[in-house]
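TA notes, week 10

Several of you asked for a full example with nothing omitted. So below is the full record: C-alpha cells for the whole chain, then the designed sequence directly under it. When grading your own attempts, check the secondary structure regions first.
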C-alpha cells in the first residue's frame, strides 16, 4: 500500500536550516517569520544579543568599562549611547563584542540543537554578519541554503531613520566594513525582493518554500 510523503514535522524528515543574508534594514525579521511559519522557528541573533547585553554580568561590565552614560535611567543598557561609543572606537567595539558574541553563539547553537530535537522545520538563522563572522561561529556550515533579501539602498536608509532613529547615511557607514552585498547575493541559493507590498513579499517567500518542498502539507 503506497504511503504519503512525510510532512515537515514527521520523524522521517530532518530539520532544514536557512541562513538569511541582506543589508541593514532590508526586512530580514519579516522574511524570517514568513519562512519559519507556524511549524518552524527563528533564531534571532539581535534579540538574543539584547538579552545578553541586559544581563547583570554584562551590565556591570558596561558600567565599569564605559561609564554610567551607556546605561539608561531605567537601569537598562542605552543602546544608542553604546553604539556611538563603539562605532567610533574599534578597540571599544572589539571589547564589547568579546563580551557579547560568545554568549550569543552559545545560545544559537543551543537553539539549533533544541529545534532539531523537536523536529521544527525550517529553522531560520537571522544572524547579522553571518558570513563576516563565520570563522568564529561556523554557522553557515549548519545551513542547508542561504537566502538573500534584495532591497534598494534608499529604502533601507529611510527605514533605519524612521524605525531606529539613525542619521541619514548611517546604514552605508556601518556596512562599509562588511562583505559587499553583491558578494552576499552571489552566495545565496534564493533572492527575495522586498521592494513593494507585504503581499508581494509573502508571495516571494512562498515561492522559495515551494521550490524547497517546505510548504506545510495543507498548503502544498
Amino acid at each position: 500500500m503506497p504511503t504519503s510523503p512525510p510532512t515537515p514535522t514527521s520523524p522521517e524528515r530532518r530539520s532544514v536550516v536557512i541562513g538569511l543574508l541582506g543589508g541593514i534594514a532590508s526586512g530580514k525579521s519579516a522574511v524570517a517569520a514568513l519562512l519559519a511559519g507556524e511549524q518552524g522557528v527563528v533564531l534571532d541573533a539581535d534579540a538574543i544579543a539584547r538579552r545578553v547585553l541586559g544581563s547583570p554580568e554584562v551590565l556591570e561590565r558596561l558600567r565599569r568599562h564605559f561609564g554610567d552614560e551607556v546605561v539608561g535611567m531605567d537601569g537598562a543598557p542605552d543602546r544608542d549611547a553604546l553604539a556611538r561609543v563603539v562605532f567610533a572606537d574599534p578597540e571599544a567595539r572589539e571589547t564589547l563584542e568579546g563580551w557579547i558574541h560568545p554568549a550569543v553563539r552559545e545560545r544559537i547553537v543551543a537553539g539549533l540543537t533544541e529545534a532539531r530535537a523537536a523536529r521544527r522545520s525550517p529553522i531560520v538563522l537571522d544572524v547579522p554578519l553571518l558570513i563576516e563572522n563565520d570563522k568564529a561561529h561556523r554557522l553557515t556550515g549548519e545551513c542547508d541554503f542561504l537566502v538573500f533579501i534584495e532591497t534598494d539602498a534608499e529604502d533601507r536608509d529611510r527605514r533605519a531613520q524612521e524605525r531606529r532613529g539613525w542619521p541619514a547615511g548611517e546604514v552605508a557607514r556601518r556596512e562599509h566594513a562588511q562583505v559587499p552585498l553583491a558578494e552576499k547575493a552571489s552566495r545565496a541559493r534564493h533572492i527575495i525582493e522586498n521592494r513593494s507590498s507585504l503581499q508581494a513579499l509573502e508571495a516571494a517567500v512562498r515561492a522559495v518554500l515551494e521550490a524547497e518542498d517546505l510548504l506545510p502539507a495543507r498548503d502544498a
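DSSP finds ten helices and five strands in the chain. Use that as a sanity check on your answer.
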